[in-house]
User: Which sequence fits this backbone?
């Protein structure tokens, strides 16, 4: 039988608050996902009681009130004198009848980040990456489905943010031929076409994603200047003569052959052409920023993708013969990022 010493109870110990903060984070994610799945935000455009929401939703009255209180504590819902309504961010992004609805995107992101249970994570730590089923992040179908969810996300301000990064490059002057490498559903490419009216923009993506690009270009009326090209940019030719190549959070998939990829990018640029990379940059011996290290854990353990060390992209650009103009650490809507800007300079 274990014996205890009473004086141990009075000794100072480290606070365990951090563990609860981690646990509470999981609960908050679950509550957000449940709110999207129930569609409860659709009934909160104006002040309404929990009873009124339950009647419209066909839900349990008391539990609906308790759930609304939880959403209010997360600042997703306001509560005043027993009535509830959406906060501004929920009105903008969590109502299905609004064009900026991000519910499906949030659910898909949560599923991808939480793709592995604690037991699966333990198994990968003990035994290494598993064999990959057909519907994982390595499959074209997965990314084709994700691209559709990304449309509203990119429209929520992300395409505008990426356009502003490019617009602020003084060395870039009216590019006429642009490549968006791994550019998702094409909203940044469409924004670039709007910014540079004389340009043509190619989005090189997996075939199902390229189809989404072409659909969105048609909807925005720029299909004559923006097109999606399907393929694997690591193994396939990506074209040549580009004045600007842009790559945002995609080169991680080419980390194992990064210098070779940079050589391909350099050769695809016209002399004087500009390459812009937006990516993560891990520091503190690959333990920071936590915004990337922790969410990427399941994918890293499964050998889907790896984060970049700070300075790694710029070093590969230089080794491939690109002149590194500058590397910037900036804040973005999705966390801290590293923007590396290079130029093809032929001697």
Assistant:
């Amino acid at each position: 039988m274990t014996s205890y010493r009473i004086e141990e109870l009075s000794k100072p110990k480290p606070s365990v608050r951090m563990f609860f903060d981690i646990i509470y984070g999981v609960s908050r994610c679950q509550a957000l996902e449940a709110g999207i799945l129930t569609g409860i935000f659709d009934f909160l455009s104006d002040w309404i009681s929990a009873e009124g929401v339950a009647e419209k939703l066909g839900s349990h009255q008391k539990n609906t009130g308790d759930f609304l209180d939880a959403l209010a504590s997360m600042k997703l819902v306001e509560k005043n004198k027993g009535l509830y309504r959406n906060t501004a961010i929920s009105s903008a992004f969590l109502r299905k009848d609004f064009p900026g609805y991000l519910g499906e995107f949030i659910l898909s992101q949560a599923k991808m980040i939480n793709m592995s249970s604690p037991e699966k994570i333990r198994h990968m730590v003990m035994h290494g990456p598993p064999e990959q089923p057909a519907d994982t992040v390595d499959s074209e179908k997965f990314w084709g489905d994700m691209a559709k969810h990304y449309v509203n996300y990119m429209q929520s301000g992300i395409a505008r943010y990426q356009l502003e990064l490019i617009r602020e490059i003084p060395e870039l002057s009216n590019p006429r031929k642009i490549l968006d490498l791994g550019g998702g559903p094409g909203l940044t490419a469409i924004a670039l076409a709007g910014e540079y009216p004389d340009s043509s923009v190619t989005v090189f993506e997996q075939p199902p994603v390229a189809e989404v690009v072409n659909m969105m270009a048609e909807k925005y009326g720029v299909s004559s200047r923006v097109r999606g090209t399907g393929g694997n940019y690591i193994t396939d030719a990506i074209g040549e003569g580009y004045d600007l190549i842009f790559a945002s959070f995609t080169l991680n998939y080419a980390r194992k052959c990064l210098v070779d990829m940079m050589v391909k990018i350099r050769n695809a640029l016209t002399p004087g052409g500009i390459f812009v990379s937006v990516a993560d940059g891990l520091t503190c011996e690959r333990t920071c920023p936590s915004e990337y290290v922790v969410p990427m854990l399941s994918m890293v353990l499964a050998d889907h993708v790896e984060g970049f060390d700070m300075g790694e992209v710029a070093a590969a650009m230089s080794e491939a013969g690109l002149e590194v103009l500058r590397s910037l650490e900036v804040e973005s809507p999705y966390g801290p990022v590293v923007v590396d800007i290079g130029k093809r300079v032929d001697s």
In short: The beta strands are 48-49, 77-80, 83-86, 177-181, 200-205, 226-230, 242-248, 269-279, 322-332, 335-344. Residues 118-129+137-344 form a domain with the Rossmann fold fold (CATH 3.40.50.150). The radius of gyration is 24 Å.
